[in-house]
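Protocol step 4 of 5: obtain the predicted structure for the target chain.
Materials: sequence only (see below). No template structures provided, no constraints applied. The aim of this step is simply to have a reference model before the mutagenesis design in step 5. Sequence pasted as it appears in the construct record:
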Amino acid sequence: MEKLISYFRLSRAELSKVIFPLPMQVKSAFIAVFSVVTVITLFLALVDLLMSYSISSVIN
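Step 4 output (structure tokens):
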């Protein structure tokens, strides 16, 4: 039981050291991730379209 209590005390001590991001930091990180995902998605859609067109022209 003493190990469990020690675990919770150490956990609380570690959580007090955590620095949570500010709302502005979260917003800028979201915008950066959303932008990168959008660009990669558009690129992959373009590659898929080109490959689909080229394969269909070879088959037909």
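Step 4 remarks: The longest helix spans residues 23-59. The chain has a mean pLDDT of 96.
Proceed to step 5.
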